[in-house]
Fold Flavin-nucleotide-binding protein.
Amino acid sequence: MVRHLEYPKKPQNTVKRYNNRGTYDLGVIHSIINTSSVLHVSFAPSPEQPFPAILPMIGVMGSFDYPSASIDEPLDCYLHGYVSSRIMRLARESPNGLPICVAATKVDGLVLSLTPNSHSYNYRSAVLQGYARPVEMEEEKLYAMRLITNKVVDGRWENTRVPPDNVEMTSTTILRVKVETGSGKIRQGGPHDEAKDENRSDITEKTWTGVVPVYEAFDTPIPSDTNKVKDLPPYLDSYVSETNNRNRESALAAVKEPE
């Protein structure tokens, strides 16, 4: 039996509603983070402001100390942002790190049932909680910037003008989030209707039920007006087609009931 590393269950990360859909598996949670184009990061802006701040950010899981660590091992979350943004300033001013939450969600399907109340999504979601500090060492900053760039398009860092110059390095701040807790939640399968509705022919014979698969897809890359590369680079062509196929397969696989 294969044993997977899990985040410890604490009051703030334990899944309560539909807890059978909850997961604490590091590999599953990190994969959701790494395949989500946008992460939503929340933090408390100040004691005087009653509303939490939420920012869309680009981020990726990694380990500078152990760069060969796999997706199912303990990792940090690196977030990319502008040097003078509020979250970066607060992180610099927090001696113990800025407490933040990082959330990501992938929608795999629209689940259409007999009644509106039973409709749902097939989805994969993840939440991380931890303390964010700015990355100070240049080597680690470059490591994180490479990870983040290649998350957007695999192989892109190596096919651009690198390393960034001094102005670019100075204007960019990378936050390293030391993760304290994490959890995920996954829903897959078809509609789950009430027996009282499934046994009524006046409803079942007029209401279509099932799943509409949903997945993110990339269209054919369009060159810029200043582009001088005649042919589409193989790494970009492969990334687009392979990602589209993988996303479609995930959405179709989610239609099946979990085993």
The CA atoms of residues 40 and 74 lie 21 Å apart.
